[in-house]
């Protein structure tokens, strides 16, 4: 009895645990994850990754060994027995392990435990988590792909209303567990017995539909009732059947068709028998009140067409017709293994202006991605229009010109960013779009007949991929804090299962924008699942010769513009960044062939080392930089990553080949663009000097001279930025890493044009802009873009000094290189690494600095003492005085623990 009680306690404790502190001086494995998800359902990976972190607050805490058990009986696993895999005790400090047990079978819940040994050889109690396999293979699907068969003029893609589908079935046995597996080309909402299933939005994630489709798994055990049941599915168009016309040609996508889906509802009964309710022709279908839906523009809903109870048993569906069988959109249907999109934050309207009985203007007070939700009461047939905008002019004009720029409507039936809601007249009604999202701060509500709205009638929902936050910045400068918040908001507003450039005008997966925002993303959010999904999209879109488009996924647009290495180097940059931040090489391995194909294509295009294939320093302030120079720098970056990746995987011939090419590219750049006498690249503008310094082009003996040239250039530019997208990524790092951290901070903290702070000081911006100008100035464009967001990442590396160690990736060893910049009194920087929370917090005490460091258990750190300081007393969190070892000049090795350092100005 005690053993059973212990097992249940372990299981419940582990499932509830987020991050529990160690107790009684013991180590505890915590934050158990499978494929970077907690207790996931529907895992398709035959060898999933299992990970954990070590909770132990003791000084010098480290893991010396681990043991993993995997089994199908939770009580057995909790009590130390694994019938599927027993790794035995492995003497290792690894916290990321690939499953290596018996072949996993589909539709099975596996329980796994990990026990760890600390530095003293003491073992922890095992902690238990779970994962459940999904289809695993295509052959395990039972259902058929179905659609509704409605046509307009003989063509199904032009049918506007979204289709309903329903199926009734009965159960006579007691259900032990039930899972719904649903794959959709388009979007969907699933319900069982009138209850919507799950809290995801815009599922499944956007892919190249004719090459790969995603399915989602739900636990629906609670929703299945004894006796009669009904399943309901509402399909939306998404990117699969885009009916809006814009410059990106998604309306001409080769996969385009009426939405379709396949579903298996798999029920396991208490007696062990299994029954599967699948999509077949006997499902019934009809048109819904969603009379139009476009992921690009908006959604229209006619509440008069509602059919109450359509997704419940007993509904009269005699007038509904049978579903139509359809071919599968692709032969690659795989599990959606990533953090989903959700309505993450509810945002009440900050103000409401009543302009008349038929016109109201709501201000959310911040720019978001997502939807608005309206409560309203009025006469049947009253048409409500909700126009979503970023800009409200002084005359109360809601202006969408800046975000409708690329829209090319064929008529006026699909107004941009404008939801249409037609009232049923049945009391108070609520409307929120199902298959759309927008970027906006203001909502103008107009009606064809008078309605009365209150300030709380409209609410905004901030929607995005719901990634766990892992980083935090807080300083004594409120402007820095606001820039960090704005950058994070822009990053999230542009994350919908893939990184986008703006949540309104384009919603495209621009490679360049994501390239320059990846460090921001990884410092602030646990983003590996989204990046792994998006790099699979890269592999889907790659041409046989290695070429990649500039937007991914794409309808076919973008293979002939802005496809150079400055933009599409994402195939190299993002897998390498993920490896640095997580210490996980799987994405690099998955992308190796694609990266090699891409690199070889670059070498064919530019065998001698220079290329002008690229877009260049996009939207600079005023400077002009040679496109050949910038593209060649990114060519060097790609080949360098290719060489390092080959070395990582022991591919000696590849390493030799690409290392030699990297040196050739670097030499060609320096030969043509570097003046060794003056230390100037090209014309000596900020972008040219920054790129050479940051990306390792400058010969070691000339770094100081080139850095001095950059500092002089910034001074001559009034200590303001004069860079575009490429320069923005490099300039702060180039300065702070080469002795000019104070100047870098001055640029980051500026509040006059051009600067990040200018947007906030002038417009009270809550997101980052697409151009250095502000509202009402020239080139006014999108107000919610992420491409200038590198300043956010610099707060972590430049102020907090938190950097991954390339020799020990995943923050196994942390490089701490803080800069105690003039003009800032305090900086509190924290980051939840794969090993736990890293803290780098400093504050001035007159001329001196008090520096607080937390190195998580099972990790170490190298602290680089800033120039001009010397170490004083070093104490731990409990007040104990310790000494720290100097391993090099001004470099100190720290073991796990929380430190308080007194640093004295010399």
Description:
By secondary structure, the protein is an alpha+beta fold. The protein contains 16 helices and 45 strands. Strands 18, 19, 23, 24, 25, 26, 29, 30, 31 and 32 form a ten-stranded mixed β-sheet that branches. The longest helix has 22 residues, at 627-648. The chain is globular and about 85 Å long. Residues 1-24 have low confidence and may be disordered.
> What number is the mean pLDDT?
96
What overall form do the CA principal axes indicate? globular
Number of alpha- plus pi-helical segments: 16
What is the percentage of strand-forming residues?
Answer: 25-35%
Runs in which pLDDT lies below 50 for 5 or more consecutive residues are: 1-24
Per DSSP E runs of 2 or more residues, the count of β-strands stands at 45
Structural class: alpha+beta
* Oligomeric composition of the shown chains: single chain
Task: Outline the biggest β-sheet.
Answer: 10 strands, mixed
Q: How much helicity do the residues have?
A: 10-25%
* Cα-to-Cα separation, first versus last residue: 66 Å
